[in-house]
Amino acid sequence: RTLLKTLSNIACRDTEEAASNSTAEKYPLLQLKEQEKKQTRSMGSRISALLSRHQRRRSRVHNGPLAVEEDRKEDVEIQDTHKTEEAALSDFAEQAQLTDSQAEEECPLCLEYLSEAAAYYDTEYASDARRAVFRFKICKHLFHGQCLLALKAAKDNGCLRCPLCKTIHGVVTGNQPDGLMHIFRLDDIVAGFTTPGVIQISYCIQAGIQGPTHPNPGTHFTCRGFPRVGYFPDTTQCRQIVSMLMVAFERRLIFTVGTSMTSGRHNTVTWNEIHHKTSYTDNSSGHGYPDPDYFYNVCEELKSQGVTPEDIEARHQIDWDRDLPHLIATQ
């Protein structure tokens, strides 16, 4: 009750101060807005610190002599967390020294000034990474370290995607279960093309138990409709697309575990937003040929997953006269 009363008093006092100082004669509009933002930030910091002190005080009262040992363990855990946080950002961004003009810019995530603390800043337990401002290594956009750590925690898939320009920093990895990718060449003609040659990709995944990166770890998942296939005409462009699909398969991005959009089944292996043509003779279902926009669309889908032609390495380049059928396995 005391805590709630104190929080209420803080909020009321800041509201009264803002109201008493909001006259147009005393403050121009710009100054008034600046003062209101500072009051809001100040109130948030005081509330956060008060909650933290209240929790520790209750712990010491209830635990007595054990409180000292608990505090020591907590300090060790905090130090370990700080080291992990600093390492988590070092792969994608670097600490930045703000210029005078940059100090007046807002963090795109929390909308607080970069020179100020993030909106949910914890002054007592914050690591150096959380206190600092970071600059992405590729796109150079600036953010609070606290905000980037929150962004990474929301979707920890091995990378960080800039919220402003969508540039991917790091390598995107998915949760596709272990499986096989077979590549064949058929002596047939894709609808809409005149040159013989069809590239067939066959994916094989077996049912199993969900791991820590899946929606329900320890729960059984099913694999319906496997082996699944995709078809491409045997052209120079499509050979490059197949090489990018090989990269995506190694990074576990072709499939995921979740709810099927077609059957509604839960805990099953589904396509992961990289569309495949499952027929090369009929497009009545929208999953076949001819489809003049498909090659552009699938390249954009791969790009959105962080896979571009620049990611193709020597092992992804097939000798189409000697290396077929070609096999890729993930384990």
Quick take:
Helix content is 37%, strand content 17%. By secondary structure, it is α+β, with helices and mostly antiparallel strands.
Q: State the end-to-end CA separation.
A: 55 Å
Share of β-strand residues: 15-25%
- Strand order in space, largest sheet: 10-7-6-13
Averaged pLDDT, please? 81
What about the largest sheet?
4 strands, antiparallel
Overall body shape: elongated
Uncertain regions spanning at least 5 consecutive residues: 17-30, 35-43
Radius of gyration: 27 Å
Structural class: alpha+beta
Number of DSSP helical runs? 8
In sequence order, what are the helices and strands, one letter per element?
HHHEHHEEHEEEEEEEHEEHE
Question: How many runs of DSSP E, i.e. beta strands?
Answer: 13
- Report helical residue fraction: 25-40%
Can you walk through the features of this model?
Helices cover 37% and strands 17% of the residues. The protein contains eight helices and 13 strands. The strands form five sheets. A four-stranded antiparallel beta sheet has the order 10-7-6-13, with helices on one face. Strands 1-2-3 form a three-stranded antiparallel beta sheet. The chain has a two-stranded antiparallel sheet with strand order 4-5. Mean pLDDT is 81; it is low at 17-30 and 35-43.
